[in-house]
Structure formats: C-alpha cells, structure tokens
Write a structure and sequence with these properties.
Length: 296
C-alpha cells in the first residue's frame, strides 16, 4: 500500500504540472507520460497474446500506436485513418516476410487490434488536452487540462469507491466468470464516489465551474462509471484468457499498465464523442446534430 501511495503521488504531481503549467514543457510531460503508457500497455497486451500461442508483430503495433499519439498531439488526428491503413499493410508485409502460414490470421488480427486498443484512446486523451480550445471553443485557460483532470479523477474515484464498498459489502457478483471480485454493490459505491468527486471538482477546483454545468458534473461521472466498468471487465477477459492475474508487473503496487488504464481506454473515446455532440447541440436541434455527426 505504501509503494502504491508513493508511486501515485509522484504520478499525480507530474500530471498536475503537465496539465496546468504554462509553456511547452508541461505539454511534453503529458505527451511523455502518454507515450510511456502506450508503450508499456501494448507490450503487456502482446505478452498476454503470446501466452495463448499467438505471435504478434510487436514492433509494428507499438510503433503505430505511438504514431497515433504524435498525430493527435501535433496534427489534430488528421492522419489517424491513414495510419490504420499503413499499420494494416505493414502487418501484412511482415507476415509475408515471415513466410508462416500457421497462425497468420490470428497473428495479424491481434497485432492490429493491440495498436488500436491502446493507441487510439490515448491519442484522444492527448487530443482533448491539446486542442480543446480550438476544437470546442472553450475560452477557459487550461481548458484541456481541466477536461482531462475531470475525466481521470472521476475514473479513479470509480475504482476507489468500487474497491472500498465492494470488498467488504459486495454480495451480488456482476460477472463471476470475468471478474469474481466485482459486485453490484461495488459498482454503486464507485458511481456514488464518482458523483461526489465530480460535484467537488465543480465547486472547488478553479475553472471547473465554468467548464462543467451541474448536470454534466453529476451525469458524466455516472457515464464514466458504466463505461469504465465495461473496459475493466473487457481487460479482465483478456487476462483470464491468458491465464494471468495482472497484465504485468511494471509498476510497484499497481499491477500492470493495462490494469491502471483499462477504464480510461473506453472512457476517453466516450468523453470525446460527448464533447463533440455537446458542442454541436449548442446551435442545432438534436435531429440536426445527429445528422451532422453522421455526415462528417
């Protein structure tokens, strides 16, 4: 517990400095942290796949995942689709050069999915942080940092509330096959603590009151709880299939990187879609907004 607390404090200090410092240094810290998470996360995913006899092309998948981050940070994700196509062709060429027929279908599919599963959501994290003001018109200083901090802290609150309530009081299992320790009581406890965290952030964190309305401060944490739980259970399915308890042993007291960011990998894309929809709805009806989203 002490090791977990110490590493959490170090990470949180770096996160706060990166999110809210002026100049390029803070942004590069966030980019570096995200690259670290992507590199380790893809490695852990491919290692789990290897325990099932799959031979993914790790170097190609990890490189494309990092390319997603660079594209998001510097170029507003304008080349993400091209990167997916490039990744597809690189993996096919690698498979041809290996000249292995057995497992070719699975190896290529797992390699492609690993880069997208980890790389694209974390690229959207960078996009929200880097381009919130220009993309969605926020005029609050450090709007991207505020949005990202809200997402991360309410997601953490879900995990903490789920653990603190689910461990002593959890009786109704959500998915005994995938995650025997997760319970309905823990889900409710996580949602409650996430709501409290969202409300406290709006009330007391400078700038949050301008960024988030009260319905958003209450309902978005509930959405993150539900979506994050799906992400957590999905990663549990990967671990069960690979026969491992943790995705890795990279960080003292926290298990693997994927164990830390599994909820974020689903919450970040949902948050990005919500910000797009909310921005569109400001000047359009719901029907017009849905049409415009599908026509882009």
């Amino acid at each position: 517990m002490l090791a977990r607390l110490a590493s959490s404090l170090v990470f949180f200090a770096l996160l706060l400095y990166g999110l809210f410092s002026n100049g390029e240094t803070g942004g590069l810290i966030i980019l570096g942290l995200t690259m670290l998470g992507t590199s380790v996360g893809t490695y852990e995913y491919y290692q789990m796949a290897r325990k099932r006899g799959v031979e993914p092309t790790h170097w190609a998948g990890a490189a494309i995942a990092i390319a997603f981050l660079i594209d998001a940070y510097f170029f507003r994700c304008r080349d993400s689709l091209s990167l997916i196509v490039i990744c597809f062709w690189i993996l096919l060429i690698a498979q041809v050069l290996l000249k292995k027929i057995e497992g070719a279908l699975v190896n290529t599919a797992v390699s492609l999915f690993g880069s997208i599963y980890v790389g694209l959501p974390l690229a959207l994290v960078l996009y929200i942080f880097r381009h919130a003001e220009t993309k969605w018109g926020f005029d609050q200083p450090h709007a991207g940092g505020l949005l990202l901090l809200f997402l991360i802290l309410t997601s953490w609150a879900t995990d903490i509330g789920g653990y603190c309530i689910g461990k002593p009081f959890g009786k109704h299992k959500m998915s005994p096959v995938l995650s025997p320790n997760k319970s309905v009581e823990g889900l409710i406890g996580g949602a409650v603590l996430a709501i409290v965290s969202g409300a406290l952030l709006k009330l007391f964190w400078p700038g949050m009151g301008t960024i988030f309305s009260w319905p958003e401060a209450i309902l978005l944490p509930v959405l993150f709880t539900l979506v994050g739980t799906v992400g957590d259970l999905g990663e549990s399915a990967f671990k069960r299939d690979a026969g491992v308890k943790d995705s890795g042993k990279t960080f003292t007291g926290h298990g693997g990187m994927l164990d830390i960011i599994d909820s974020l990998l689903l919450c970040a894309p949902v948050f990005y879609l919500y910000l797009n929809l909310a921005n569109t709805l400001e000047n359009q009806s719901l029907t017009e907004a849905i049409r415009s989203l599908f026509s882009r």
